[in-house]
Amino acid sequence: MYVSKDLSLKLKRIDNFEIRIFDNKKKENVEYILKNSKYDIYMVINEYDYFIWNCLDGTMTIQDIHYTFYERFNRVSVSYVENIINNFCEKGLIENYECDPKKFLPKKKVLEIRFPIKHIANFFEIVYYKVAHLFFNKIWMLIAILISVTGLLLYFYIKDKPPLVDKKLTSIVILYFAVMIPVFFHELSHALFCYHYNRKVKEAGIMIYMFMPVLYVNTSDIWMADRKHRIIVSLVGPLCDFLTGSVCSILFFFFYAQSYSIVFYQAAVTSYMRMVFNLNPLMKWDGYYCLMDLMGIYNLKERSSKFIFHDIVPKLKRGIKFTREEYYMLIYGTLSLVYVMYFLGQLIILDLQFFIKFDISHLNQRAILNLLFLLPIIFMPIKRMAKIIRNRSNVDSKLNIKKT
């Protein structure tokens, strides 16, 4: 611990911060999102942490905070108060405590490698304030709805559709660039709506995700907006996919006889597919963040996994009733686990079907990519389970609050 050795130390919180209630719905356990505006670091805190945060005004010693905490909540937990203060220090939220900025860098993920593009966020800001803000009104919204519905109807109206892709390399390359069209507009829509609600885009660029290059936009600053705006920013991506797919469907309908119409068809199909995939709440895509805001449970996936693999057995042994939030986490965590197992099972079956008829001459790119994709996904749950088992004996500091 950094600060527990000197109880006479007077710590002062930084001035450059933002804080707001995470969930606007009424419930007992209110959570707040605290932002270090200098480093764009976010921290979720509960009512106890919020009280401690307000005590860090530079006039109270750590010992005073312990006493005030006891007076306010009639609870004694020296380790809890000190742990929270240390967490504030580690996030760079304490003014008179030196922090290492390297700690603020996001942890590298196995299947994600990001390459930020300099000044691209400024480009999005210029696009919004110079042009895009003119389209944020009801008239253009109705036009977008009309185009979306018309394009979808035309897509189903066309009976004789070409194959999405054939075995030619040029067709695969064209398909890839056709996929990039909805991806670009998808990410652009997230960025523009983020600026529309007076938040900013931290960074944007190219990311290698699942061994495939894709575009990404970091809109984490939208966490400081209210729940309604967060949901809209999450939903606008899939809705933009819907609109892009419909525009491409209309173009495909009118230029059906042209050889280049295949590009419009590919872009339409991939846009509609992206819309469906992104609305899937069981993966950490746009639909997941919408569900998280609707339920009012921050870090829903991680907390659901922790509840299922770490907390549920002790609660059952003690006969402790689940809260409504815990029931939600149990249902979501179970569905998410079943979905991942089903997804992996389907992938394994496809590969087994290939390898049953295995011939070294048939070893194509699809088999290699599937193996590269499958191995890390299998490895990550094993690594996660090992970490949970290793830390099982550690008592969560937030459970150490005892009534006197």
List the helices and strands and how they pair.
Elements: E1 10-12, E2 17-21, E3 32-36, E4 41-45, H1 47-55, E5 57-61, H2 62-73, E6 75-76, H3 78-90, E7 112-116, H4 120-130, H5 138-157, H6 169-196, E8 203-209, E9 212-218, H7 227-254, H8 261-278, H9 286-295, H10 300-318, H11 324-356, H12 365-390, E10 402-403
Antiparallel strand pairs: 1-5, 2-3, 3-4, 6-10, 7-8, 8-9
Task: Explain how this protein is built.
- The structure is a single chain.
- This protein is mostly helical.
- The chain folds into three domains: 10-104, Outer Surface Protein A, domain 3 (Alpha-Beta Complex); 112-292, no CATH class; 300-398, no CATH class.
- It contains twelve helices and ten strands.
- It has helices at residues 47-55, 62-73, 78-90, 120-130, 138-157, 169-196, 227-254, 261-278, 286-295, 300-318, 324-356, 365-390; strands at 10-12, 17-21, 32-36, 41-45, 57-61, 75-76, 112-116, 203-209, 212-218, 402-403.
- Strands 2-3-4 form a three-stranded antiparallel beta sheet. Strands 7-8-9 form a three-stranded antiparallel beta sheet.
- Strand 8 (203-209) and strand 9 (212-218) form a beta hairpin.
- It comes from Ruminiclostridium herbifermentans.
- Keywords: Membrane, Transmembrane, Transmembrane helix.
- Its cofactor is Zn(2+).
- This is Peptidase M50 domain-containing protein.
- Belongs to the peptidase M50B family.
